[in-house]
Protein 1
Amino acid sequence: MVDLSSIGGIVSIPLMLVSVLSLAIIIERIVFWNSVLSKQERIRSNILSIHSGNDKIISNNKKSGHPLIIFYNSLIQSKYDGFQELQTQIQIGLQYTEPVLNRFDTTLSTIVAIAPLLGLLGTVLGLIRAFHGISLGQPLENTEVVISGISEALVSTAIGLIVAIITLSFTNLFRSLKRKEKHELLLFATRLESQQLELR
């Protein structure tokens, strides 16, 4: 088994834990958004349809946690009369979808912030180790300590930056998908309102 502390210093261990956590969350969010986007059109069509089986379709999808289902359920559970009340209910419906759409956002943002700092800490510790080797007064005999300290500093910095860059890239991707989903929910509410006006 590879000793991580011998590669990038003691800081490489928390960096590895942070990277594993980041990878797990990224995979979970990719699976979530893939499920949301692949089912979106079908669920939207089912809700907007006026077939008698519509209620059954909705009830079957309640457990899926799809933002569109959550949003729709929040709308039909409240009685509204007039444009202002409908707009208020739409905003409330969007609030209901927030926990699902924003899941792990804070954790990913924390990883983006903390990974470079851990890398910087590894850099400082590595340089301290390298300078300690030089200060012993026998630089030729302590070359291995100096090189090891510099290597530790560079490796920890690189790991921290790689984790932060990858996590930040996916965090921005998920935020973009969240904005797009909220826009889709607003369009859906508009279409639902238009349909109800036609049926009156």
Note: The longest helix spans residues 143-199.
Protein 2
Amino acid sequence: MSMTALTPTYRLEAGTGVADVWWKSGSISVKASGTETGGSFAQVESDDPRGSAPPLHVHHNEEETFYVLDGELSVFVDGDELRLATGDFAVVPRGVPHAYLVRSERARMLVTFSPAGFEQAFVELGVPKTGEAAPADDVFPGPAEAGRVFAAYGCEIVGPPPAA
């Protein structure tokens, strides 16, 4: 991936993103994609209910950071559990197996991928937000399709989601 200069400064209004999608039981708002950052990083706001957890996975192309805006979650990194609450921050290096589990009623976090690219998997697989009501679960791709798309973005599923 070729890195170029950042685009001119831009501003997003509260509650908006350059792409906003329903993602499984929560939502993803892309605040900055590779287009806006010249490929150097992407940042998404994730809003998930209690019990939300992606499968254990490895990013082969990017580092991932978690900054908790509100709520509590556990980030499982290479066999260790990091308990995070509002204001906490964690970094997961590329190549390291990890997953998270939302422990509070809801958790909102800013997740950064560096370099950019993986944020497009959420845009590709998610359902565009057109209102406040989340769509039914059956509109989202199953594990095999999600795994295929994630793999195209350099993300390998290596285990099940963590259990509560």
Note: The first strand starts at residue 19 and ends at 23.
Protein 3
Amino acid sequence: MNKPPLSPPMEPLDYPASALRDEVSTLVEDPRTDTVTAAVTDGFGRLMGKRLTKRYYNATERKKPILMCEAIFATDIRLGDVPNILGQNASFQDFQAVPDSSTACRSPWAPNEVLLLCDCMRMTGEPLAISPRQILKAQIDAAAAMGLQFQMASELEFYLLGATDELPPTQTSRQRLRDAGQRQDYHLGQTAVDEPVIAQLRNDLPAMGIPVEYHKGEGGTGQHEIVVGHAGALAAADRHVLFKHAVKQVAANAGRVATFVAKLSDFEDGSGGHVHCSLWSLNGRPAGGRGARKDELSPEMRSFIAGIVAYIPELMPLCAPLVNSYKRYRPGVFAPYDLRWAFDDRRAAVRVLGEGDSLRLEFRIPGADMNPYLAYSALIASGLEGLRQRLKLPAPGEPPVAGPTLPGTLSAAVRAFEQSVFARSAFGVETVQYYAALSGWEANLYAATVTDWERARYYREA
């Protein structure tokens, strides 16, 4: 991340509301436009919503709200029903999807369509508490009450698979690729194979208001990373979900498949979802300190990092929501498996780097499968609690000797989340119960499933 300007380019949240409305009207009234897509994010961070005709959107925007059903929040990652997740007597009522004008964009691959991200509001006008975007907004407000705001960005790794790959890829098919010598970390020759897709993304993303800094190959076979510019916390999370949507769409249009699963196979590198975060005062001054040395970090930055180390283990379903997420954490790779923080150390859970205005922490625990609104919220909430408690920062490079540890499975993470007094205090009982149930459902389905690994290992010997 480069020096964050006080009014970042392409940062729509700085525009006056009237200018935003005028900009949306211009996009919608463009003769090319025939569709307006209203989207919300579900508990897993996926875009869900409706494609409206231009005529209907214009009538709706002026006279009545866009309505969607709470059933969006009552299904698992495969859209199977999660029993009673909204309560035993849930009637699956409508909620209002209120477009946020600052998110309006046109997808280059669909020039007829204008996309708008929406806030989820109950019919009575209150925010829908379990909506991911509303959860992040609440944490941004909590930070503002303490005099802080954030510049943030996601670094997402993903695998780009070929049309001839077995899907989902098996160990045999991936091993064939590995034997072909296609590891590609920084390898310009190997990544050239995928360059037509990646080049389109480098061009299409800025057209959607998502500035691209660079692309590089990652360590896995067919693994890539595209780094996008930073923004305020909410805008950065919005960029994240639009980025992921774009990658999947552009890949599909090219006859390819992009996957953000945290651990694609037992021998491939995992895909991280690293979150960069810098601290700023409300008047736009850096609040993190001068540089990436312990004596140059501000007291606020030290307590903020200490809060992450202390409280993130209680919030892991917000950072790592799937069974597969926890298979990424192991020694010997760049994914953290303990709670070390350090200066410019990619093995650490929290990496501190940069100087001056670019001083920031890199939160390396989330995988590419994270919901950014939730992972950002967990990062902010735990850091703010460190500030409230004025926690002391442990020594860099060493995990806390008697402190908390990362849960090793989704089931353990859900238990810690459900039992956390801090989680209920930071997010409210309704939100904790909902996301514990959502991730707990995934954990229970996995626990009841007999896998190919079990059959292959035990059927002759047991």
Note: The two ends are 54 Å apart (CA to CA).
Protein 4
Amino acid sequence: MEEVILRAKVILSALFKFDETLFEKKTRKQNVIEGRSFLIYFLREDFGMTLQGILKYIPAITNHATIMHHLRKMDGLLKYEKETKNKYDKFLLRMLDNEKYVIETEIAKKVNERNQINNELTKLKKLL
């Protein structure tokens, strides 16, 4: 499951043109907020994840109300904005594309490794 979520983060960060680590940090950049909305909607509606589970995988989101806001917003956008619907469909196709799966899975693994290394570095710096 974590591999699928990492892969979704990699795809969305490429689609919205931002670094995938911004899923972890608070920011008000519009492209990051849109990417988070897509990820939240995907995790809840297409992946069936609970609100508590979503909070676990998107540390920048701190409460259930924010998740519910993103879900309602995406419902409306997907119903009435063709551009958003097309972008979401493109994201889903990329998630299902077997050719790119291997590359994106490898990227997701490397991102995970980088995050672990960054955590270790932070711990070591605190010891200094």
Note: The CA atoms of residues 2 and 8 lie 10 Å apart.
